[in-house]
Amino acid sequence: MVRHASPVKSPAVRAAVTVMLTVAILGALWVPIYARVLPMRGDFPFFYWYQLILVPVTAILCWISYLLLRARPAPRARPAPRAGSAPRAGSRHARGARR
Amino acid sequence: MSHTDGVALAVVVASFLIVTCIGFASARWRPAEDPMHLNEWGLGGRGFGTFVSWFLLGGDIYTAYTFIAVPALVYAAGAAGFYALSYTIMVWPIVFVFGPRLWSVARARGYVSPGEFVRGRHGSQGLGLAVAATGILATMPYIALQLVGIESVLTVLGVGGNSSNVLVRDLPLIIAFAVVSAYTYLAGLRAPALIAFVKDTLIYVTVIVAILYIPSRLGGWGHVFGVASAHLNSVNPATGKPYGSLVVMPAGQWAYATLALGSALALFVYPHAATGLFAAKRRDVIRRNAALLPAYTLVLGLIALFGYLARAVPEVNAGVKAGHGNAQLSVPLLFSSMFPSWFAGVADAAIIIGALVPAAVMSIAAANLFTRTIYKELFRPYASPAEETRVARLASLLMKVGALGFALELNKTFSINLQLLGGIWILQTFPSVIVGLYTRWFHRAALILGWVAGMAYGTIQAYRTSGGGQAHFGGSAAPVFGHTTYIAITALVVNLAVSAVLTVVFRWFGLQDGYDETRPADYIADPVPAAAPRRARKAEPAAGGKAPRGSTVPWSPDAAPEEAPAPAEAVNARQAPAAAPAAQAPAVEDDATVVFDIPVSLAGRPQPRERLPRRK
């Protein structure tokens, strides 16, 4: 039973995912943008609260990317390659099983 | 520090006993039909869904050493220690990209370790061996450091401590490790996976309580940052420079960024992280977890702040001074001076159990590497699965004994140096493993020589780096062209450059490249786990809407279809027998929701029963 994650995604989706993941990585990698004390939030210097906020932001970006890349809808588009008398019998079995 | 806190100790011992029971009981969790298979012992049956994987990976990657060493670094040097936070932020988008490919090819080909993948992908035994040896070499001191984490907690608890006899002093450590080895031997990856639930619950509880409770007792975060800032700006008499800074200074930013990036790239080349990845049930689990595991990163960030909290507590500063300036005592000391005894015990237990989970996974991962890439490849090519499992079990014991030897016999500084070297070394397998997932452009011989160059450069550079009062191995960053850079990153650049140049040269001379046993389809394969029957039945009542409209042929949920690019037995050992009857239709539907009552005559064999006990 092997499925294949659908590699075919629209260029727009791929671009969006690339941008989101790049933003997430660069947000942490590009130290000069957050190596500063001001603006403070509460008693926290920017350096600390920025990184702590970046954690959930990264998680959300990854989750959106996951939703976009999910293989779910793809399989239905693929036709069953086998034909013949088997199909009808099969669907009957399948349906019978779903009580 | 000489007195023993009875209540806290009792809580720690009780937690340890509970965890031990869970460890031994885990051998019966999701029992397999044939436990003597490396897929079972070494990867927990490759059946962990999002939830279990989240606990396992979190428990495995965020180790006790991290929980001790990161705040220790923050305690001593301030902002520089926060590189661990940005490292664990960027690791997840990175894993999101390559994790699914690595998982797919490992599942499709039945690999249990990165070394095997490299051997198969590049058709090079030598390269596989190099990757396996690097993995084992880097893992051993890592396990030893888990012991260092346990030790610092025990010291603060007043256990062991003063005796000059190694055996007496470290007896608690030895007992703890012997017990862990025993249940890891029996249950394999199931034990740490189950114990990870306890570990993570304790860690989350501790961190949430600590972060809500301690600052208010210390006069708020403003005061905490004030004290930290005053300390960091004061001049260290040993170096004549300030101890550190509250925000990374421009001079330190390059080191900060390369340390974070290098660690993030290296993480999933480490055998223990890869093992956690391979144990996932489905391809989707990886990406979902890349989005969910940052929860631990948040915890790590808060734990890093403990370093500042500890700085604001006079008792901690006095205790660290009494412990010869060992900053690693700061977090356990913070717990013991801020919490009532019983809760300090809970927090200490969190750290100790937090050390046992990764130690178990690491020894399993190293054992998998050894068995498949070294033992089977070099000595017993036709070893049966049962023999593999036996060897892996023994190897996991050996790894633990070795690590214990490291921790007890050798100087502690030595294990920390080795851990530092391990991080540099393991990144040198990045071109073979991760780049190899995408391209076979590199020649196998060039990759080996690039690895040699990277290893040599990294080791020599680390040796030449002084710092922290040490002439050698004094730090993990060294200046390159005026920028202080994480040595692993520089070594990786050297490695890639050598590999690229030699690839061109070898191609020019027509040197033969290895045979690639993987197929492009392997990298996007998403084989459905053998647990399908169980899941299918569970999903039954709700399956109506998701009915398999496109599915037209009766097929055994277990049958490996011809569409599978891999030889059937490689897809999943359990599926192999079912492959015998000509598989009918390839996977078309979201099979998890499909149920078929297949007459035995049609399916060719009785429906597999091995997974049913799991239903409970």
Helicity level of chain A, as a percent range? 55-70%
Cα-to-Cα separation, first versus last residue of chain A: 23 Å
Question: How many β-strands of chain A, per DSSP?
Answer: 1
Strand content of chain A: under 5%
Structurally, the number of domains of chain B stands at 2
* Poorly predicted tracts of residues of chain B: 531-616
Q: What is the terminal-to-terminal distance of chain B? A: 48 Å
Task: Report the average pLDDT across residues of chain B.
Answer: 77
- Helicity range of the residues of chain B? 55-70%
Find the structural class of chain B using helix and strand composition.
Answer: mainly alpha
Shape, per Cα inertia axes of chain B: globular
Average the pLDDT over all residues of chain A and give the rounded result. Answer: 72
**CATH superfamily descriptor of the largest domain in chain B:** Sodium/glucose cotransporter
CATH top level class name of the largest domain in chain B: Mainly Alpha
Explain what the structure shows.
The complex is a heterodimer of chains A (about 100) and B (about 625). With about 100 residues, chain A is mainly alpha-helical. Chain A has a domain at about 20-70. Chain A has helices at about 10-30, 45-70, 75, 85-95, and one strand at about 1-5. Chain A is elongated and about 45 Å long. The relative contact order of chain A is 0.13. Mean pLDDT of chain A is about 70; it is low at about 75-99. Chain B has about 625 residues and is mostly helical. Chain B folds into 2 domains: about 5-25 and about 40-435, Sodium/glucose cotransporter; about 530-615, no CATH class. In chain B, about 65% of the residues lie in helices and about 0% in strands. Chain B has 26 helices and 5 strands. Chain B has helices at about 5-25, 40, 50-60, 65-75, 85-110, 115-120, 125-155, 165-170, 170-185, 190-215, 220-235, 250-265, 270-280, 285-290, 295-310, 315-320, 330-340, 340-380, 385-410, 410-425, 430-440, 445-465, 485-510, 530-540, 570, 600-605; strands at about 235, 240, 475-480, 485, 525. A two-stranded antiparallel ribbon of chain B has the order 1-2. Classes of the chains: A mainly alpha (about 100), B mainly alpha (about 625). At the A-B interface, strand 1, helix 1, helix 2 and helix 4 of A face helix 5, helix 11, helix 12, helix 14 and helix 15 of B.
